[in-house]
Write a structure and sequence with these properties.
The longest helix is centred in the C-terminal third of the chain and has 18 residues. The strands form two sheets. The protein has an eight-stranded parallel beta barrel, surrounded by five helices. By secondary structure, it is an alpha/beta fold. α2 crosses α3. 40% of the residues lie in helices and 14% in strands. β7, α6 and β8 form a beta-alpha-beta unit. It has 14 helices and ten strands. It has one domain: NADP-dependent oxidoreductase domain (TIM Barrel). 43% of the residues are buried. InterPro entries: AKR, AKR_Detox_Biosynth, Aldo/ket_reductase_CS, NAD(P)_OxRdtase_dom_sf, NADP_OxRdtase_dom. One of its GO terms (cellular component) is cytosol. It holds the Pfam family Aldo_ket_red. This is Aldo/keto reductase. One of its GO terms (molecular function) is oxidoreductase activity.
Length: 352
């Protein structure tokens, strides 16, 4: 397993992490992802640790806290071997104090997560969404208190826009609060919006990307095909409306390119899609999920090899989309482009 620094921090994380969204699955979304019980979870953690996957990501909102509870049981007796990442801010109930990033909510959410996880500290505590109703200063000072109390070691965010992340970082610097080191983001071959603004921000400010749904909400498994019905067992029957929208023809173009590379490499389509992500700037870790050991072991095949430059270029071209404003002038007009060269040496995703 390759280990990378998480953003501008000293914390080293595995290139692949395990997402525990399937643990204790309940409800229309998480129940469709999977319902791994404690016994099965322990086995998946065993496989992960044997492969060098030491970071496990969850959230309080995953099955109403059941994911944290199952993960806590699965790592019992080996807490010092793992990095635990969890998230809060999304609603856990209908009450006025059951959502957001206020001082009251964050302290309560942290204590609840510690109890469910069966631990006395959280390695990476992330805000699951931006709370526009709470002053950023209040949120950051509370997170500072949790770090100083030893209950949290590192801080991150998820699903923030560029201005929300940058304003938070600026306020943290102004008041001497701990800075966010991670941004958990949606990024895949069929969802490259991350590259327009958040990737340059990550490079500039030292925010490491933790990639969620790297297989495009289950569309890059190789089972979703042109002119074929959605497989009967696909979770997309139940979860498609929760995820990012995807143009079908764009998806099929990407799958066609993945098919070509699968024939060249002998690798499975999901392994190729994950390997592509592992070569992108700012990506610290790609979070993989699995309903069972077979899926987990297949995803582990994404490491230990590297796509060639030509194969990367083929995937870049197949997955490119027109840039939205204000980015398209920098991709299409030479004068604009001279002022802003491609991020990290990448070919801009709209250039193909």
């Amino acid at each position: 397993m390759e280990y990378r620094r998480l953003g501008a921090s000293g914390l080293k994380v595995p290139a692949l992490s395990f997402g525990a969204g399937t643990f204790g699955g309940q409800g229309p979304l998480f129940g469709a992802w999977g319902n791994t019980d404690t016994r099965e979870a322990r086995r998946l953690v065993d496989v992960c640790l044997d492969a060098g996957i030491t970071m496990f990501d969850t959230a309080d909102v995953y099955s109403g806290g059941a994911s944290e509870e199952v993960l806590g049981d699965a790592i019992k007796g080996r807490r010092d071997q793992v990095i635990v990442s969890t998230k809060t801010s999304l609603p856990m109930g209908a009450g006025p104090g059951d959502a957001g990033s206020s001082r009251k909510r964050l302290i309560t959410a942290c204590e609840d997560a510690l109890r469910r996880l069966g631990t006395d500290y959280i390695d990476l505590f992330q805000l699951h969404a931006f709370d526009a109703g709470t002053p950023i200063e209040e949120t950051l000072s509370t997170l500072d208190d949790l770090v100083r109390a030893g209950k949290v070691r590192y801080l991150g965010v998820s699903n923030f826009s560029g201005w929300q992340a940058m304003k938070s970082l600026a306020i943290a610097e102004r008041y001497g609060h701990p800075r966010y080191i991670a941004h958990q983001v949606y990024y895949s071959l069929i969802g490259r919006d991350y590259e327009w603004e958040l990737m340059p921000l990550g490079l500039d400010q030292g925010l490491g990307a933790l990639v969620w749904s790297p297989l495009g909400w289950g569309r890059l498994t190789g089972k979703v095909r042109r002119n074929q019905p959605l497989p009967a067992g696909s979770r997309l029957h139940h979860t498609a409306d929760f995820g990012p929208p995807v143009d079908d023809e764009h998806l099929y173009r990407v799958v066609d390119a993945l098919d070509e590379i699968a024939q060249e490499t002998g690798k499975a389509i999901p392994q190729i899609a994950l390997n592509w992500l592992l070569q992108r700037p700012t990506v610290s870790s790609v979070i993989i999920g699995a309903r069972n050991e077979q899926q987990l072991r297949q995803n582990l095949g994404a490491i230990g090899w590297t796509l060639t430059a030509d194969q990367m270029a083929k995937l870049d071209a197949a997955s490119s989309k027109a840039a939205p404003y204000p980015y398209f002038p920098y991709q299409r007009q030479e004068g604009f482009a001279r002022l802003n060269p491609p991020v990290g040496g990448l070919t801009p995703p709209a250039a193909a």
